[in-house]
What we know:
It is a single chain. By secondary structure, this protein is an alpha+beta fold. The chain has helices at 13-28, 39-58, 63-73, 81-84, 86-100, 154-169, 174-189, and strands at 106-107, 113-119, 124-129, 132-137, 142-144, 147-153. The strands form 2 sheets. The protein has a 4-stranded mixed beta sheet with strand order 1-2-6-5. The protein has a two-stranded antiparallel ribbon with strand order 3-4. A hairpin with a 2-residue loop joins strand 3 and strand 4.
Amino acid sequence: xxxxxxxxxxxxxxxxxxxxxxxxxxxxxxxxxxxxxxxxxxxxxxxxxxxxxxxxxxxxxxxxxxxxxxxxxxxxxxxxxxxxxxxxxxxxxxxxxxxxxxxxxxxxxxxxxxxxxxxxxxxxxxxxxxxxxxxxxxxxxxxxxxxxxxxxxxxxxxxxxxxxxxxxxxxxxxxxxxxxxxxxxxxxxxxxxxxxxx
Length: 198
């Protein structure tokens, strides 16, 4: 069973969130050193953590809605591109890596395509896309003529997640945060009925 504390005071959330931050450092950050830099695993893990934080932040059950709220309210304070690209991050990187192994390619009503592009570098990095050397920026679309990429720095994903947790620890207003957290804690701590056999 999940061990998410029910809070009397907001400060009681700190221990849980600090532990969560430690798991990011111990479990996810080492993936950057893996051969190929584990882009799908990092994206999947980071975005699942964001989904969990979003549940605690909003108290909402609807995944897409809470995910968007968290990116807009918390993540955008670290990098505003989380706000401007929240839907693409959710549909492409979160849903793709969680449900279908790799990020999805998106197509808009005009037939333009938005491809995923993970790279392990800094927020602004130089790399090759289809044999063309280019400079990309984390969460800023790159391309032209109906063919675009949404670059994601897996290094930034991890660093930003740590900062999201830091900001969540000091989030407010405290009474509202506590109420929403406790609503999510009730959801997450509920036993799941299933008639299993032993």
